[in-house]
Write a structure and sequence with these properties.
64% of the residues lie in helices and 0% in strands. The protein has 77 residues and is mainly α.
Length: 77
């Protein structure tokens, strides 16, 4: 696999933690967020636990479902 195609595990973990943080702040379960974002709940789980990389469109769908801007999920402190 080419180096540019490898997952950046550390970054993906941080984004997953952001998804979980905003989801919990909204009082949503993974299932509720998945329904609102039009994706499988297992996808949300895999994103939150950094078992899966995500596309920009998935980030945007999750952000829209959470009522936040997509960049907020990508912001790493």
């Amino acid at each position: 696999m080419a180096d540019n195609l490898k997952m950046d595990k550390s970054f993906i973990e941080k984004v997953g933690k952001n998804v979980k943080k905003f989801r919990e702040a909204k009082g949503l379960t993974q299932i509720e967020l998945a329904v609102d974002a039009n994706m499988a709940s297992s996808t949300i789980g895999m994103i939150e636990t950094a078992k899966n990389d995500m596309t920009i469109s998935k980030i945007n769908s999750i952000a829209n479902a959470l009522g936040i801007e997509a960049y907020m999920l990508l912001k790493i402190d």
